């Protein structure tokens, strides 16, 4: 699997995506909800940290952040982006096996990328289990997912690739459930899939939200908006992102729960 991811991320500017107007919706939403659970002295672990967009932001706020990343390319960029005064570490590792990290250590655990790229149920459960294991009792875990129906609408229908998806056996034409393989890069979910995974663990769900809502479906319009209107859109999104009926249309969702 890692060879597909390495090739993909070597040619993809993830930091740049989060700086676009549509990508910033996801970044702002995630940081807003992380902020609800920050407190002085909180220890943070980011699993699958990529190039460190979130880790660096939190470290620059004064928090101790440890990061784990699978891909050497991303680690190089992570280290390059590290400021001298950041209290931050980054190590190479896999989300499904964090044996170098002790149990019950972190107040906040971020799992903002790995669930995008795991295809076997056993690996998904291992990644969630490891994130929960290293969290303290009462610690808060943030798990991000890519949603199937949003991809069907945006990539399949809006971009005219629906027949290609069917030809590749990536779509059930009766239920419109999606199917992915490692070479497809992204695993796609429905709400019931996420609920089923979480149900394996002794956790309490705090929030489940649309991380970017409808933003990806209106990229061009967001780019064209004046600042006042864009600010109003951000306000609207944050006010509605936990409404259940909004979540399936979001390309990215965020499941937030605490360890019992």
Could you list some keywords that capture this structure?
12 helices, 7-stranded mixed beta sheet
Description:
With 260 residues, the protein is of the alpha/beta class. Helices cover 42% and strands 19% of the residues. It has helices at 2-10, 14-19, 21-35, 53-59, 72-80, 121-134, 148-158, 162-167, 191-198, 219-224, 227-240, 244-247, and strands at 43-47, 64-69, 88-92, 106-111, 135-146, 203-210, 252-259. It has a seven-stranded mixed β-sheet with strand order 3-2-1-4-5-7-6. 39% of the residues are buried.
Give a quick precis of the structure.
The chain is of the alpha/beta class and 260 residues long. The chain is built from 12 helices and 7 strands. Strands 3-2-1-4-5-7-6 form a 7-stranded mixed β-sheet.
N-to-C SSE string, H for helix and E for strand: HHHEHEHEEHEHHHEHHHE
Roughly what is the average pLDDT, rounded to an integer? 95
Poorly predicted ranges (pLDDT <50, ≥5 residues)? none
| Percent in strands | 15-25%
User: Strand sequence of the main sheet, in spatial order?
Assistant: 3-2-1-4-5-7-6
Q: Enumerate how many helices there are, as a single number.
A: 12
What's the end-to-end separation, in Å?
33 Å
- Major sheet details: 7 strands, mixed
Structural class by SSE content: alpha/beta
Number of strands: 7
Percent helix range: 40-55%
Based on CA atoms alone, the radius of gyration comes out at 18 Å
Shape: globular
